[in-house]
Each structure stands twice: as structure tokens, then as C-alpha cells.
User: What shape does this take?
Amino acid sequence: MMYGVAFSEIDSRRGLPDLAAVRQGVLVGADRFMALAVSAAGPIAELGILSHLDGLITVSAFGPQETACATLDEILDHPEGKIKPDEFSQSVHHAAASHLSEVFGLKGPVFAVTGFESAWTEALSLAETMMAAELCPRVLLLGVEESGLLTRHAAELYPERFRWEIVEGAAALLLSLDRAENRIGGIAIGRGVSEVTGGELFRFGLDEESVRQLTAGHPNATVTFPVWSKVRDNRTDYL
Amino acid sequence: MNAAVTGMGCVSAAGESVRRTRAALYEDAVTPARCRRFRTNLEVPVFEVANLAAESDQPGGVTMQLMRQALFEALDAAGVDGIVLSRLRVGVVIGSTVASRFVHTPFYAKLRKGREVMPQPFRDYVDGSPAECIRRQLELNGPAITVSNACTSGADAIGIGAMWITQGVCDLVIAGGCDELNELPLNGFHALGVCAPAPCRPFDAHRYGLNLGEGAACVILEPPEQARRRGRSAAFAVTGYGKAADVGRRDYYEPVSVGSHPDPEEAGSQINTVEADSIGSGLEAAIRTALRQAAAEPGEVGFVNAHGTGTVDDDLTEAVVLARVFGEKLSYMSTKSRTGHTLGAAGAIEFVLSCLMLESGIAVRNLNFETAPEDIPVAPLVRDTAFDAEYAVSTSLAFGGSNTALAIRRLI
Assistant: This one.
């Protein structure tokens, strides 16, 4: 059983913090993706409980869209080989994870996880694995979804998978296997098989009820995250 | 840690299967050439997989086409079919950089201008997320994780898979890495100024950068006792996985308050710590963790298959760290002068190459190494060298100070 040490979340429906200020003030040269992550995790960092031994996982479906699209713009709009190197290096998923580990002073293992199904819960599972293997004592899990060209068009391009508007936001959850660190309750993973579509699962895997429970946070509570192992797929001809 | 390797698949410029890779390993290697798959005016040589279609209409594109080739070879080698998969808790963990992002520029060019687009490239991107794609299509019921840790992705996937087996999370794990060569990495690495104008020369005094490549590798991991029950004899095992970040490596950001940093001694775990300000501290921590998990001393390691891209700074850092950990008897090489730098696939491909060297008992020479640099303490192998050891270590490094080490043991 994992335990929640601290949880914090930001969500565009409830209003985001001033990301421009975050980018200018805390993260010199950061993109929007990183600013979302730092804004979500800021309250946890301010508790003063992060250790440099802790690990970090970022999880996202579309990743750093602003930077990734800027790289594609560079390829389309400039002569070959003339794209901005920083744009390219920051556009890979792992760049944000790596830079965030530096922001928070973490030198434990750092992972960037991607996926469109139950990525948040799979990342939770990875956190448990990392701690059980004693790669690190705790893991800071950061779920981030940045709004961009692809997310804005996702529902029209693939309505079977993206039924609802994709919400921009980020969530930070500090995890431990040590019961003594339990502040907001147990974290459990329910692995099952269910015929559901990806659209129902989207929003980096966190549903409203889970967010409410984690925000309320009680040591005696347990929040269970489902893993949907079987997303309906009518295209079975390619494997 | 003890995860038996019961099957392997591999495709790269060095060979389109494990059998072909094994046959070519000690022969004159393929040399990189100008890119043929897609139109480019960049005059940098690359390692392309022979006979690979320019495009794929399948989810995940060419990257997943490469992955499927390695996957089916590995499943076949492990004697794993649909019946076996249906009876076990099977996890899948794949490392990739290209498949983790949208790279279809013709589609994007229309979308950004508000023009009508055919949705298929977007759908293929979503459906082609590697681990989920494999889980869905093989109807697996275990965890599925795609790791996008840049150039350590493939090695990390194998490490995570080995942890799942060791901890009993899964009965069987499909682990590997895959990446195609396309205009994004070619443009990006060229812009970074790290592409060599000729065949790369890892660790050489006159090294001038890397050659990009492409490929995929896949391994089937199982608990040794289960492999025996299935009548499979595993030749190798993943016995250690170390992973650590370098801190203090960049100055992009002003630090925020991060609170207390407990004394590592008080942490009381097996977590490795080294001086944060020493060169390559994260890589050293990763290697020492992998060795400790494997219960192996540095002297018991036959060779290290180093990351060794051929870039000036990274090769220096890695060589210094390897010498610090393994001492003067260090035996190491980079195999990227045979495959190119295959990015998210590199760690998995190099794992397979390491297994093949353990199998033969001969460590391959570091191709194109001619002049020993003054600042590299121990030179890499300049000729194929027989060794008498059960262990090998494969190291992977990535953007932003991500360091991975895998310890591999020969069982037969």
C-alpha cells in the first residue's frame, strides 16, 4: 500500500495561476507545460518536506504542446537544419521531467510517462515499483495536460476517444511507502478489465471524485484508482 | 533483482533480427550513409534499417512497425503464444521518444492554418502509443507504460520490467525500446550541433559527434522458476537496474525552496549517493546501484557497453565515471558506431548486443577508435577481446542528466 503525503492540483475550469509570472519568476526559460507542473507542485515544495533522494514522474498524454508545436513550426517555416536547438531539446517529454527534478532539487530516478488510457494510474503503479525497489524513498508524481492545437481539435478528430473537452491543468501527489508519512490516506490501484473507450478516461486519469478525496485528505481514507486494461478498439487488423 | 530473459528481438542497421545481428557482430560493420528514407539536404550520415518502408499506415507509424518486428521475434524466441499470454499477468513497458509525440508535419501544417484535415494521422498517433497499442492488440491484462526518457528510454523500460518481475507485479513482461529516424530528430540533433559529418568515433580524441540511427529491441522477462516450468532455458538475466539524475547540471532556473535534505545515511536504504558536485555523479550512482542489486563487484564485470555517442563532453564524462567505478582493468566499448544512436531504442538494442557478447564470451572492439585522448583515463577496446566473466553492464545517458545502468548476467 502506498500513502499520500501531500496533494495539490490546478485546473483551468477553476482558474489557473498566473503562469506567465511563474515562467518569468521561478523558471527562467520554462514553457507552459513546466509552469503548470511547478504551479501544481509549489504548495508541496513549500511544505519543506521534499528530500533530494526523492524520485519524480511526470505523466501526460500530449506532453509539452506549446514547445512541441513550436518545433514543428520551426521545421515548416525555416530552412532545414535551422531550427532552434533549445526548442527541440525542450520539446521531448523528458525535458520537463528533468528540469522539474532540478527545480525541486531531486536527484532520485526521474521518469516521463505517456499514454492515452490510464496513464496516471499506471504512473502511480510505477511509483510504487520504484519505492519498493528502493530506488528512492518517495516519489513526486506530476500529472500535466497542457492545452494546445492538438487537444483543442482532439474531439473532432477522434470523437470515439475524446468525448469531452480536454481540461488543462496539473496535479501533484507526493507518495511514500512509509505509513508514518501518511497524511492524506492510502493510495490503491484497482486493476481490472472493462470495455470502455479512452474518452471516458481522459484527463490524465484523475476523475473529480479522486481529486475531491485527495484534496480532503484523511489518513484513514483510501483512494482507489482504476486501471482500465482493455480499451475498445475496432481496428484489429494491424498486429 | 533476477528477471530471466527468455526471448529477444532486435532490428537495427546492424541486423534485422537477433540472428543477423549476432552474425554481423564481429564482422566489418555497416557504415552510415546519407539518409535515403526521406528527402533531406542535411549532409550527415545516418544508420538506416535496410528494406524499411518510408511510411506506415499502421498506428504508431514506422516506429511501431520496427517495434512489432522485434516484438514478434522475441515472443517466438520465448515460445510465447496467445494461449500463454492469456494465462499470465503480462505487463508491457516500452521506451520511445518519437512515438510519444506528434510528428506528422503535413497534417500539422494544415491543422495550424485551420484547413480541413483527414484525421487518420492523429488517430494513428493516439492509437500508436506503444505500450497501450501492444496491450490492446495482444489483449493483455497487466500494466502498460510508455517511458519517454529520451535516450535512456529503452534501458529504463527493461529496468522497469525487471522490477515488475522481481516484485511479483507480473508473471511475464514485454519490454523494449523503439524509434524511427525522421525529420524531427534529424533536424533537432543537427541544430544542436552534435551530428558527425562522418562515421562517429566514440571516445576517440578526434571525435566529432554522433550518427543518428533507428531500430527496436524487445525482451521477454520472466521469473526464472516460471521459465523452467515452461520448459524454457534462459541464457541471461537482468540482475540490476540503477537510475539516478544529475543535479546541478544546468542553470536554466532559479531554484525554489525545496526544504530539508536528509542525511543519506539516515535514509537507511540501499539508495546510492555520491558527491553531487563530482562529474557524472548520477551515472556513478546508477552503476553502483545496479551492481549492488546484482551482488556483483566491479571486478566481476566482463565489459561495459557504454552509451558512448561520440559527442565530446558526454563521452568524457562517461569514460571518467567508468574508470572511477571499474578501475584500470575496465573493459568497455560503445556499439553506436555499429548501429548509430537509436535514441529511445538505444538502451534496449545495446542490452541485446550485450547479451550476445556475454553469449560468445568476446567483447567487441570500439569501432573507429584510433587516438586515445589525454583526458580519458582508460581507452576503450581496440580489438575484439575474450573475457571470462558472467556479468556485463550497459549504460545509458540522456538529455538533462538522466542516467541508467543495467546489470546483465549470463546464466548458461
The two ends of chain A are 36 Å apart (CA to CA). The first strand of chain A starts at residue 2 and ends at 11.
